[in-house]
Specification:
mainly alpha
């Protein structure tokens, strides 16, 4: 699973730079989570789904009118990724 987790990290930079939409980012992360669902604790999947849902919601609005900062959500995904790797879920 480490290859799949490693493959997710560049998507964060791509999204931050506008090369990947928030919807595309969420789709890629959800697909990766589905492929490796048994390897991750259920609470990690719940947190991931919550963050991705917030990220998708934030994409519907301008940064100023949304209660979720896309930069903060991308940071939360980066933290999630590092914690999932540390779990040995790879």
């Amino acid at each position: 699973m480490s290859d799949h987790l490693s493959a997710l990290e560049p998507t964060l930079d791509d999204a931050a730079q506008g090369r990947l939409s928030m919807q595309e980012l969420a789709s890629q992360w959800r697909d990766a989570a589905k492929q490796h669902q048994p390897s991750l604790p259920p609470r990690y999947l719940d947190v991931l789904d919550r963050v991705l849902s917030q990220l998708e919601s934030s994409a519907l609005f301008t940064e100023e009118s949304c209660s979720f900062s896309q930069a903060d959500m991308l940071g939360a995904l980066r933290d999630w990724l590092h914690k999932a790797r540390a779990l040995g879920a790879h």
